[in-house]
Amino acid sequence: MSAFTVNNIYSNILTSYAPKSSRYDSHKRDELKSVYKSIVKQNEDAPLFLMDESGESQKFAVNLKEDARELKNTISSLSSDYSSSILDKKIASSSDADLVEAKYIGPDDTINDAPSFDISVENLASNQVNIGSFLPDNEMGMEPGNYSFDINVNDTDYEFQFSIEEGDNNADIESRIARLISHANIGLSASVIPGEGSSALRIESNTTGIRGADGLNFVVSDENTSRTKGAVDYFGINNVSHYPSNAAFTINGKEHSAFSNNFTVDKSFELNLKGLTEEGSSVHIGLKTDLDALTENINNLAGAYNDFIRKAAEYTNSYGRSGKFMYEMSTLAGSYANALDAVGLALQEDGTLSVDSKLLMSSASEADPKESLSAIQKFTNALTRKSNEISLNPMKYADQVVVAYKNPGKNFPNPYVTSMYSGMLFSSYC
Predict the structure, then answer these.
(1) Is residue 50 predicted with pLDDT exceeding 60?
(2) pLDDT class for 247, splitting at 50, 70, 90?
(3) CATH placement of domain 129-242
(4) Which conformational region is residue 159 in: left (phi greater than 0), alpha (psi within -120 to 50 degrees), or beta?
(5) Mean per-residue pLDDT for 131-156?
(6) Rounded to whole angstroms, how far apart are CA atoms 147 and 149?
């Protein structure tokens, strides 16, 4: 099997089954080495276990690992690139987040120089959409044979081949073509639009903006294809129903355009255009006050922690075998309960946190909020360490029977054998 084919298969698997990743799932080489060393060290003195290999156990461990990763990423998003403290994070403000969403990405050492500006949105960036002809589902107007067509994307031609057999109908072939295009990983998505006893192929570009010289992001044809032609005209997949467009907007009265609705301004703000402003109106972008940013970060932390606890409790109840995870999380939160309660975060019976907004605001308004809210940062650091621990070894919380303990302190790490479960540690984001 060629390397190209293997790469396409691997890309298709990742696209179809891998969890969504974020920029916090990208790591430097040193960080990945640290993860590997942690795995090796963890298995160096780990006893030999017999694991519960049931489907429920596997689902429990995988869900726990993914939710721990999501919690860690949320905590990372609450701190800046220049500080690990959630108490330092600056937050952008938008006078109408339904139209323009803003995120501050600039350095904290130049926070006082961060610009504020007004933006008006005249047009949103859009993608190209081709919709084919609606054909009767149970009929076929093409002769049996081998057909092909070409799609030009970013000045590169891709040929798609398919066969029509006796008994095939339009719906069968349309579904087959849609899968071919979507799984090719060339920046296009295809689907079948159902009608009343008929259906049509829909092809759209994954990217927005006018990127081709002819104003199109992709072109479908079969004029120079290697197999029998005729599929393009029959299915009508070269019919452009929606042409791509660029985003058009003004910042402080100056006109701008962009391929995407998501872009940065002055290396300080990341904007996401979501709607059009009315004529003569604009959206003001700036920074929230330190007090507002601080309380919003803490509320977001509590929300992320509560989601994590509720999901984990649901998995544990469904699994019905090991309460070790919930016990450890209860112990972790309990050790900070008094300090958190004093600043407005109260630990509930189900393990979640409730926020007393008035007490939190009062604590954040003190002369030195970093000192008064230090317990929250300590709790956050503990959560980060725990989420790392869970991600490295989620099977720790599944049912396991110890077969033999290793001789403590006299073992040597084997760099080629980490764990039979280490495959869970490597995904599209690692």
Answers:
(1) yes
(2) very high
(3) 2.60.40
(4) beta
(5) 94
(6) 7
- Run of H or E including 65: helix 55-77
Structural domain spans, the chain: 28-88+292-405, 92-125+246-287, 129-242
User: By C-alpha distance, which of 419, 398, 425 is closest to 43?
Assistant: 419
pLDDT at residue 414 is higher than 90? no
Q: Say how many C-beta atoms besides its own lie within 10 A of residue 399's C-beta.
A: 18
Q: How many helices (H) and strands (E) does the chain have?
A: 11, 20
SS3 257: strand
CA distances from 405 to 37, 44, 206, 402, 408 (A): 21, 11, 53, 7, 8
Residue 166 has pLDDT above 60, yes or no: yes
Q: In terms of C-beta density within 10 A (0-12 exposed, 13-18 middle, 19 or more buried), how is residue 419 classed?
A: middle
Q: DSSP of 74-113, one letter per residue?
A: HHHHTS-TT-S-TTS---EEETTTTTEEEEE-S-GGGGGG
Q: Is residue 263 within a helix (H) or strand (E), and if so which, with residue range? A: strand 262-265
Residue 153 has phi, psi (to 5 degrees) of -130, 125
Residue count of the chain, please give it: 430
pLDDT digits (tens, 9 = 90+) for 52-93: 767 777 788 888 888 888 888 888 777 655 455 666 667 788
pLDDT at 208: 94
Q: What percent of the chain has pLDDT over 90?
A: 41
Phi, psi of 161 (to 5 degrees): -115, 145
